[in-house]
Amino acid sequence: MSGFKNVAVVACAQTELRTAWSSAQHVDLISSTVSNLLKGSGVRLPDVDFVIDSGSDVLDGRSISNCGFLGAMGAHHKEESRVEEDGLWAAVYGATKIAAGAAEIGLIIAYSKPSESDPSLFYSSQVEPFYQRPVGFDHLAASGIQAQQYLLQGGGREADFAKVTARAWKRASANPLVQVEAILSEDEIAASAHVAPPLRGAMMSRPLDGCVAILLASRNVADRISPRPAWITGMGSAMDNHAFAVRKPGRLEACEAAAKAAYRRSGIDPAKASLAEVSGSSAAGELMVLEALGLSRRGQGFEAYEGATAINLSGGALPADPIMATGLVRLAEAYRQLSQPADHGLSSPDTAIVHATGGVGMQTHCVVTLGV
Length: 372
Fold this sequence. Notes:
Elements: E1 7-14, H1 26-38, E2 50-54, H2 57-60, H3 70-73, E3 79-83, H4 87-99, E4 105-112, H5 119-124, H6 139-152, H7 158-173, H8 186-191, E5 194-196, E6 199-200, E7 210-218, H9 219-225, E8 230-239, H10 253-266, E9 275-277, H11 283-292, E10 310-311, H12 326-339, E11 351-358, E12 364-371
Parallel strand pairs: 2-3, 2-4, 9-10, 9-11
Antiparallel strand pairs: 1-7, 1-8, 4-7, 5-6, 8-12, 11-12
C-alpha cells in the first residue's frame, strides 16, 4: 500500500454532547477530551507531531479563537493549524500530512458551543449579502426548499421525514455520548409545528455543545497504539454552488462528487459497506445524502435503513449536531464501531463510510472510507 492507505485512526475521545455545557468553557471541554484521548493510548504529547483543530470564530465570538486554546490542545511548541470547517476536513488534512511522510502521529480536534451563540446568525453570515440575506433567506429556508424539491423530484413521501427523525432519536437515546431528555414518537413529530414546510422543528438537526478528538498514525506506529486500527482507504470532498438557486433540485451533486472520489481511491462498493455514519442538516437532507452516497436508489433514500449497511447506529446528526464537530464525531463513531463491534451489535464489520456536510443548505461535503 502507499499514500493515505498507510494512515489509520487509532484512538478517539469525546465529551457528552449536550444542549448546554453551562459548567464548562471551550477550554475545559478541549482539555478534558485531549487528556482522555491520550490515556491508555501509550501516546504522550511529545509524541504528537502536529495538531489540527476545527471550530468557528463566528460561533466563538472572537477572531483567531483557537489561539486561546493552544494549551488545552497540547499545541504549544508544535505545528498547529486551524480548519474553519467541519472536523472531518481537518482529519483529511491530517491524513494527507502523514501520507506525505511529513509526520507519524497527528492530533485532530473539533469543538462547538452553539449554546453561547445564535446558530441562525452563523448560517446567515454565509448567505449572499445583497439579494438573499435582506429578504431573510437562511439555512432554515434553504432546508425547507430542499425538502420541497426532493419531494417534487419523486424523493419518497413527506411521512418518511417523521420516520427518519424518530429512528434517529431512538438510536441517539441508546448512545451514552448524546444527551436525550425525551424521545418523540413518529406521530408526535408528524403533528408538531412546521418551521420550514414541509419540515417540522424536530426534523432539523439539533445544535449541541461538545468536543471530539482523534489520533491519526502512520503504518509505522499504528499497530502499536491500537489493537484494531481503522485504515483510511479513500477521501473526497466537493463544494456546490454558493448561489442556492443554481444547485440541482432534489440532489446533492457535491456529495455525489465527494463520494465518487473516495470510492475511486478505495475501490469500495458502497452497497457492501458494513456501516455508514452520515450527517444531515434535516431529515430530508439525510435521505438525500444516503442517495448521493449510493446507499439507496435515487428517490428511495429510506430503503437504505433496510439494507445490509448499518446506517447511523449513533443516531447521526439530527439529534446531535455540534456544528463544526459533527463530521469528526461521525468518524469517531465509525472507528468505535469498527474497533469494538461487539459493543454495537455488529458482526465482523470491515468497512465504513463517513460523511460530513457544512454550509447553507448543505453546500459542502466530505467523504472518508475506512477499512480494518
